[in-house]
């Protein structure tokens, strides 16, 4: 996937959330893909390496049929051996410079930020995109940071150019256009993709509602 043409929906398959809702991990990823998602992240905080790799292999089989992209949360080692397109790391994970030394040069590397200072630091790093959040209050992300609102999204969008900004945290189908209007390139969604107990239909609703991608300079 060309980061210059990112889709506005970044679907996150959170293992705990998926299993709590009664879905298999690869099954849920497939439903998102069938619904139109083309950018996935697998988030499995407590999984062992063997189990995580098995899920990635299963998801990659679906990803390959849709010209989609799979990013792994945190686990740089597993992303490397699995052939995933890249990794997403947080403030307390392996530093971005170290990640770049491990992964191939073309790998996608995303970094979470939660404050203006963290955004300012991120723009000086070799990241592919900068994530901002939690935008709104949420129960699925760690509660170490308060909701930042669209103000930090605007701040990041201004300073990250030309790199994409991904907004995450408490974003719903109804609020996603507001977040994109604030300058986010994409919205990362976890729980709201399960609203209505039909992940495929909910994903399709996001894809149909969100505007087509616009580059940071406003071009389509």
List its traits.
single chain, 220 residues, alpha/beta, TIM Barrel, globular
How would you explain this protein's 3D organization?
- The two termini are 16 Å apart.
- The longest helix is centred in the first third of the chain and has 15 residues, at 49-63.
- The protein has one domain (3-209): Alpha-Beta Barrel (TIM Barrel).
- The protein has helices at residues 15-20, 25-35, 49-63, 76-82, 96-102, 116-122, 149-160, 176-181, 199-209, and strands at residues 9-14, 39-43, 69-73, 86-89, 108-113, 129-132, 165-168, 186-189.
- Helix 2 runs parallel beside helix 9.
- It is globular.
- Helix 8 links the parallel strand 7 and strand 8.
- The chain is α/β, with parallel strands linked by helices and 220 residues long.
- It contains nine helices and eight strands.
- The chain has an eight-stranded parallel β-barrel with strand order 1-2-3-4-5-6-7-8, surrounded by seven helices.
By CATH reckoning, the class would read Alpha Beta
CATH superfamily membership: Aldolase class I
Strand order of the largest sheet: 1-2-3-4-5-6-7-8
Q: Can you give the helix content as a percent range?
A: 25-40%
Number of separate domains: 1
Instruction: Give me the count of strands.
Output: 8
Please work out how many helical segments DSSP would assign. 9
Radius of gyration: 16 Å
Mean pLDDT score: 92
Outline the low-pLDDT stretches: 213-220
CATH topology label: TIM Barrel
Q: Could you say what the CATH architecture is?
A: Alpha-Beta Barrel
Major sheet characteristics: 8 strands, parallel, barrel
Which oligomerization state do the chains in this entry correspond to?
A: single chain
Would you list the SSEs in sequence order as H and E? EHHEHEHEHEHEHEHEH
Which shape, going by the Cα principal axes?
globular
Strand composition percent: 15-25%
| Secondary structure category | alpha/beta
| End-to-end distance | 16 Å
């Amino acid at each position: 996937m060309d980061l210059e043409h990112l889709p506005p929906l970044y679907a996150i398959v959170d293992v705990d959330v998926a299993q709590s809702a009664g879905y298999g991990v690869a099954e849920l990823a497939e439903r998102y893909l069938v619904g139109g998602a083309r950018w996935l992240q697998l988030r499995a905080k407590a999984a062992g390496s063997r189990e995580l790799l098995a899920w990635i292999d299963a998801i990659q089989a679906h990803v390959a049929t849709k010209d989609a992209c799979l990013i792994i949360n945190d686990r740089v080692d597993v992303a490397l051996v699995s052939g995933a397109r890249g990794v997403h790391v947080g403030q307390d994970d392996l530093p971005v410079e170290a990640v770049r030394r491990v992964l191939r040069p073309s790998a996608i590397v995303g970094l979470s930020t939660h404050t203006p200072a963290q955004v300012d630091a991120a723009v000086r790093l070799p990241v592919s995109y900068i994530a901002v959040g939690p935008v709104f209050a949420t129960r699925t992300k760690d509660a170490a940071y308060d909701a930042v609102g669209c103000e930090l999204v605007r701040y990041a969008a201004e300073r990250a150019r030309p790199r994409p900004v991904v907004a995450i945290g408490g974003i719903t189908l109804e609020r996603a256009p507001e977040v994109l209007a604030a300058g986010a390139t994409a919205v990362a969604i976890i729980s709201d993709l399960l609203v209505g107990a039909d992940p495929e239909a909910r994903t399709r609703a996001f894809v149909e509602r969100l505007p087509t991608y616009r580059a940071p300079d406003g071009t389509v």
